[in-house]
Amino acid sequence: MRHLLFKLLILMVFSGYGAIASATTFTVTSADGGNVTNSLHAAIILANASASDDTIEFSGSISSIVLTADLPAVTRNLTITGTGQASLTISGGGLFTIFSNRTNGVTLTISNLTLTNNKSGEGSILYNKSADFVASQITVSGVTNTSAFYGDAANTITISNSIFENNSAKLFGSNNGATPSTTTGTYTNKITVTDSSFTSNTATIFQTERYVKIDNCTFTGNNSIGNFNGLNRYQVLNSTFTNNSGTLFSFSNYHLGTGWGSFSNNHHLFDNNTFTNNPNTVINPGSNSYYDAVTTISNNTFSGNGTNWSGSPAVVSGNTIVDTTAPSISSSATASVAENQTGAIDVDAADDNTITYSISGTDAASFSINSASGVVTFNTAPDYEAKTSYTFTATATDVAGNASTQSVTITITDVDDTNPTMTITATGVTDGSTSDASTLSLTFTSSEATTDFLAEDITITNATIGALSGSGTTYTATLTPTAQGAVTINVAAGAFTDAASNNNTAATQFNWTYDSVNPTMTITATGVTDGSTSDASTLSLTFTSSEATTDFLAEDITITN
Q: What's the alpha-carbon Rg for the chain, to the nearest Å?
């Protein structure tokens, strides 16, 4: 039935039946991009000929229309409703204008479709002059030619709940229209975009004059957002900007400062937005006092950006600057530490705020760290012979929770911690022996070189010792006994040190017996005395030495008769 109505309307228009008086819905059933029956092109011609505010819809069987000619300019109020952003795409084929609305006071309303591949030239998706354009739930993608939407003279472009993605050319341009001399004046060239998303667009999105309002939109992964020119009124409100690479907003106007106009300090207003991880300048008011004087930056959240704003804007209030910069650790990742002491390393980091230090990882349990100063110490002094290397991760965290980590390796160096020993020997005699030598030549041999071994470190009984000579590990002295009997020679523990200041252990005592008296032998016989006479057939003789002997033999006895 609707198909027949469509044909009937064509006959009425082109057969002299005059304009259609009542509101009509035209259904596009042809995907042809030119002026053929039931095409979008033909439907706009019909709607323009109508005396009412009409609607154009699309058959569900149509998913794509690629234009082969410019669509007719809209001359009456018209609503174009697609079947869905993912269901219907209208393409300019890179050569043709999609929508043009140049009739004073006419409103074109579109929704539920995708627009792409416009031709080169301003407003080749929409050229809106002295008219009104309203769009919702549209997708604009694949725009490679400047510009998609252009507002000229007294017009309004209002877009909501829409998607702009993967475009490589400017999306919005505008010029002409009323230029009031005050912020509260009436602007007749207005672009308003609300509740929409802009993703991965590589060219400047808005390069406009007069009036732009952006409200509750998201911008992610784009280049520049707005290059605002002219004596403009711009409002950027309640929106989110993340990972956009260029200067987000910049302004230029040669009229400012010439005495033309009296604008308030919120003529350029940025309020209640969130700017996150945009690596360059977010807001550049214009680099001089005239631009600064008309700029307000209020109640925004800035986090991890390059420069939040430049210049000296007139009003900067209520903004939250989130610290996303982690402390910078400047201390070395390695240290060499001598064994047997507890000092390890001092972790140092720089930040504008207070830093808290901590450690974790493989050998962290072996250490303690001062959380305020970063000084790391061993819980127990390390022993080279037990473990030669330790690793842990040092973390420096600022008050905002930003943290830097560094892997730290502590190498333990070997230290001489062995106590030197002293061995005492004497030329010609051994420890525990006895001789009648009037002097002994003593040698003191240290297990390690020493420079502070002295004669007074030697303790002697029943003898005296002469000057001590020698160096390093070997020293000599002459001992003279003072009386017959036992002589002892000692070096006590702690008497001297080695090069590492280790004290010596006690030497094994050297013992020698001085005996220079000749032994005597007394001969007695049982039952008789020396010089007596008897008739005993045998005598029992006893030989008594004055000192013990082990080499007295029978052949040592000389007997006569």
A: 54
